């Protein structure tokens, strides 16, 4: 059984990137009335407490959404559009000034989806699946939201294509098992064969590991071979090098330094919408001089 619990990481810089992109994509897709299906192959628990035990243990939100909120409150310039939208959405889950609750991808999506849309949530971990079930039950969403305690890689393609032929698929594994990288590429490859016009979004960590570097390349090859447009965005907040220890000190591995989002069939407006927000994220969430962003697109 895997040990990854997203609650430790909720609201960190990777979530800021991932959920800002997710909202920008959904905003665009929801401009059309036709029903949209969102498939979240690795959903997590759905809602997280930022002041709870898990989040408090590593305090990753302190260097992510909490830092962003604090910086935004004193910034001279307003936040760029997509980033402002992200922060406003997180605030909608919180009453008052302090951010205590953080919405994961299932709740970001459900918050934006309409009556005619559908949300399919996969979560394999028994504890998180139970929590997700409980959180979704509060919404009284009926058939609009389905929680599946199944392998997201295994069966999520069964919803593709949906009857309306409009879908966004988010694949956001924990990558704690090395094979998650290859399974992600294989899943997107299969899904693309079944439903070539779906929008696919994959989050991945940027860490010194060959599989992690290989994944965006493989996704780009899949998109290019299928003749589909793609977009790749990344956010780095610090160097990936090990911290230098003083004599007698334990060498500590720094936390996640960077991550990326790779999209196939992204909205054509996405790159222009994201660019200023990525630049501001890199500036506001910088932990050292290596902070930066990249944004590429093609096809
Ligand atoms: N997408 C969520 C968000 O943005 O709020 C975070 C998801 S977290 C990074 C990854 C989740 O996938 C974990 O909760 C883990 O238990 C779950 N998981 C791991 N392997 C899975 C699989 N094969 N199928 C479905 N869920 C899986």
TrEMBL record:
Swiss-Prot/TrEMBL keywords: Methyltransferase, RNA-binding, rRNA processing, S-adenosyl-L-methionine, Transferase
Gene3D superfamilies, A to Z: Vaccinia Virus protein VP39
Protein name: Ribosomal RNA large subunit methyltransferase J
Active-site residue numbers: 172 (proton acceptor)
Taxon lineage: Bacteria, Pseudomonadati, Pseudomonadota, Betaproteobacteria, Burkholderiales
One of the protein's GO biological processes: rRNA base methylation
Superkingdom assignment: Bacteria
Similarity comment text for this entry: Belongs to the RlmJ family.
EC number: 2.1.1.266
Reactions performed catalytically: adenosine(2030) in 23S rRNA + S-adenosyl-L-methionine = N(6)-methyladenosine(2030) in 23S rRNA + S-adenosyl-L-homocysteine + H(+)
Functional summary from the UniProt entry: Specifically methylates the adenine in position 2030 of 23S rRNA.
Assembly description: Monomer.
Any one of the GO CC terms: cytosol
UniProt GO molecular function: 23S rRNA (adenine(2030)-N(6))-methyltransferase activity; RNA binding
Coiled-coil zones: none
HAMAP family for the chain: 23SrRNA_methyltr_J (MF_00934)
